[in-house]
Amino acid sequence: MNGNLYYLNTSNSEQVSRLTAEQISQWALALMNPRQREKFENGDEVDLGYESQEAGRYRINVCQQRSNTRLVCRHI
Question: Which of 28, 40, 57, 60 is least surrounded by Cβ atoms within 10 Å, i.e. has the fewest?
């Protein structure tokens, strides 16, 4: 946030695991509409918006890097 990295706050009973490449890919595809999905599957990167009442608004960039899906999410 604001150029800094922060760890997730978790209690001792909570375990936070890293997302797998497959989970990231599934999440990215779930955020896209059919036109964006087709563009992404043709090798282009996709910019999209996401809004949640609980979390607010985000701008998201989805692209391929080293054969993996990469997401960059910015809170706006």
Answer: 57
Q: Point out which residues pair with 63 in neighbouring strands.
A: 70
| CATH number for the domain harbouring residue 59 | 3.30.450.90
10 confidence band (pLDDT: 50, 70, 90): low
Q: Is 76's pLDDT higher than 70?
A: yes
For residue 64, the one-letter residue type is Q
**pLDDT value for 42:** 93
Residue 14 belongs to some domain of the structure: no
- Is residue 40 within 8 A of residue 48, CB to CB? The reply is no
